[in-house]
Amino acid sequence: MAEVPLYGKIEEVLASEIARGDHQPGDRLPSEDELLARFGVSRITVRRAVQNLIQRGIVEIQRGRGTFVLAPKISQELTKLTGFVEDMHSHGRKASARVVTQGIVAASKRVAEHLGISKGTRVMRIERVRLADSVPMSVDETYLPLEIGKEIVRNDLRVMPIFTLLEEKYGVPLIEAEYSLEAAAASAYVADALGIPEGAPIFRIERTSFTTKGRPVDYEMLSYRGDLIRFVTRLGRQKKGEAPQSKVSPSLRRR
């Protein structure tokens, strides 16, 4: 059996300390110089160990501040339509938002297709950074039909979820949604908003939510940190001879 390299041993010592609670989520790890003195190894060995912890999603570097312990990765089930606040509350996390911009724009071709409107139609665009326990988790770009969008932005979107406002304040029930999820590299803009390195892995999600009669009412482009969340689901086996069931809205089948 091959001997574990020095950086691997340091990595496991630190990972074990974090696992047993010696370093809590949000705590700053000892500095590079402190780790050098503790383990008596080269700087490159310490850096390799810390880099491996970063790749495992255990710690993160915050520019100009140091290396900090991350909360355990959230496992988010894709089995029902829920909003960010509901998702975070189910994991015991406090959800909040930072509103970046909100205003009326002309719908691009892509936005128009998802909302079932003509290109150039005026819609409400809302951009937010979503946080869990004050840690940036995602950048959300939301498009709403103008009439309901004007009502939504009258509310404090730092604390009020759009899904809750649609259903409980404005009587717009959300019935189902279409998801599209892919792995991507964080752009400079997304990386800066989430406090991660440019090019870091993210989940890019497109979600169109539908109200009654299959009418699209909310289109979102979401960028989730790949180091803090994973998505899971359960799939049933299609029986032989059984026709596949499509859940795609008629308005989207035309694309």
Look at the structure and give the mean pLDDT.
Answer: 88
If you compute it from the alpha carbons, what radius of gyration comes out, rounded to the nearest whole angstrom? 22 Å
Percent of residues in beta strands? 25-35%
Shape verdict: elongated
CATH superfamily of the largest domain: Chorismate lyase-like
CATH architecture of the largest domain: 3-Layer(aba) Sandwich
Largest sheet: 6 strands, antiparallel
Instruction: Point out poorly predicted stretches.
Output: 248-255
Number of strands: 10
CATH class wording of the largest domain: Alpha Beta
Helix content: 25-40%
The order of strands across the largest sheet is 4-5-6-9-8-7
Rounded to the nearest angstrom, the distance between the terminal CA atoms is 55 Å
Oligomer: single chain
What is the N-to-C order of secondary-structure elements (H for helix, E for strand)? HHHEEEHEHEEHHEHEEEH
Tell me the CATH topology of the largest domain: Chorismate lyase
Helices, by number, come to 9
Going by helix content, strand content and strand pairing, the class is alpha+beta
Q: Can you tell me the number of structural domains?
A: 2
